[in-house]
User: Fold this.
Amino acid sequence: MTVLTMTDHAKFLRLTLVLDAVVTGVNGLVYLAAAGPASDLLGPDAGLLREIGVFLLVYGAAVGLLASRRVINPAATKAVIALNVVWTLGSVLAVVTGAAEFTTIGAVWAIAQALVVGVFAELQIVGLRRLR
Assistant:
């Protein structure tokens, strides 16, 4: 039987934050660097994808910074969780309402991203609870 220490719990939360930061940053880089082809494939305007790319890069860097701290700030982690939930719900809403004018591939991609971000939020909630 494995006994988890407080350090192990912090490592779990840190890992979920690092993975979130990396996935978010890579996604932002792709949107920024390949906005034209991504627009053709996914549907939303290239300018919007560039703006989303910049946001994702900044957000990913902030999440990475949070994960790099010796002690992970619970309030900042709650903010990350809240923003991940907002992103998840916003992505689903954008697909359902047609607001982003997704192609079929774009709609599938947006829902897949929403699921990934939702899983990050859930794992971060679990990690934060384990710290208590």
